[in-house]
Amino acid sequence: MKRDLVRIRLCDKKVVEYNPIMRFLSRRGPSVALVYPAPYSVASQSLGFQLVYALLVSQGIRVERFTSDSCGRSLESGTPLKRFKYVIASLSFELDYAYLAQMLREYGSEGQVVMAGGLAVTANPLPVLDMIDFVILGDAEPTIPKLAEAIHYDCVDCLEEEWLVNEEREGRKAEAELEESPMLAQQFLPISIEPPWGKGFLVEVTRGCPHKCRFCLEGWTSKPFRQRKLDQVKEALDSAGPPFEKIITISLSLSDYKYHKEYLKVLSTHKLQGSIPSIRLEGVDEDLVKAVKRMGQRTLTIAPETTLKEKAEVLGKGFPPEFLKEKLEIIYKYKLKPKMYMMVVPKEKGEMSEREIGNLKEAIKGKVHVSVNPLIPKPWTPLQIAPIPSKDMEKIMIKYKDLGEVDLYPIRWARLQAIIGLSEKPIMRYLDPSLPPEKQMEVLSKVINIKKMENWRPEWEPKWLRYSISNEEEVLRLGRESYEAWRRHFQ
Ligand code: SF4
């Protein structure tokens, strides 16, 4: 392990990093700046960023990484960002666009070829196309090696692939055959600082999700649901050990993984502590909760979103109160603390939230953490036609405080996220992370019609549908069904 310890530099400090990949870095290959527009500790826990890094290195590219806390200089050698002809950025969250815009403005240079991939830009590339030359749609495994080859030939423009798009080039998402793709066995890890979720080794067991919750960007953007072979996963688990201290499972829907019981068994007896993501309520049973307890996790995250039929018809997700109560009882029986995500729908009536909160009080019999979110419409989901979050929703959300340990997703950030995500025009150059969300929205209101976004748009066929990401017919049909349900119950 010692020979894989390196020193990297952030703005204000040096950090010791475990990096078994760096010794394979080409000395002569073309160089690429790989940018994650968030702090280094967060970047280290992004599966996408780790994967693109390893793939580029394996293709003979000299990759140097940049994060929002590296002051425009690479982590590896301190080389300024402006010296790189090729820049590839990872953009999975709309709010990161502002940080990337700032990095490119401050540290970038004319003539650079800037590309970006990630969930948020895959769902809608349009907002970033004023500062980004190409968006890479879909998974890294089928796209990055071809992109690397084009970089070797110094001609990304020559690459005629349908997953490489901009305003002129329509396109289609590329999908990896997960069963055929190797697991990410080598990962870098910060040693002298603590990443937000601990020193974790990332193990991806599934990609995509078989469910169709109508608000879910991840679910719709990363379809189809794909599963790893158990042997492959076990091999990855076998290779995980110090300096990693835990195993972080990556899966949108772990209980749908056909080998999830076996996986949990192996994880619960592994020498490292295990951690699993949010579990669908149907997947919570005694075996699963016991395994979670054994692996050392103290909370279990579930996302029922609602216990009301009216809201469930709009959201395409929700569970009857008795079902939630039964599942919470199992979690409490093994002394785990549930963390629960709930959602508020536009124009939710006071009477409805009172019923919802009443149902929750009835079901909660111990400690709980509740996160309350407004519905945030996202591109390429059926609920892309829903209104952006409003101040009224905040009033409803505050009522949930009655439940005790509750956090509310701030409406102003939810609004900004929705406005950026749903933009049909390039707007990245107007974003500035040093401004509060209200100011950023004020600037954006001069370029895009935010008023239009305040209402349902059932007949709207957004411009991003020209980039084929999911089943368009189904997305539009389910959207209209949601709107009809909303009209019936909420108007
Ligand atoms: S909310 Fe969860 S279960 Fe629903 S589609 Fe998204 S990832 Fe799948």
Automatic annotation (TrEMBL):
What protein name does the entry list? Radical SAM core domain-containing protein
Annotated GO molecular function terms are:
catalytic activity; iron-sulfur cluster binding
PANTHER family hit by this protein: RADICAL SAM DOMAIN PROTEIN, SLL1084 PROTEIN
Q: Which species?
A: Ignicoccus pacificus DSM 13166
User: What residue stretches are annotated with the Radical SAM core domain?
Assistant: 195-415
Q: Which CDD domains match?
A: Radical_SAM (cd01335)
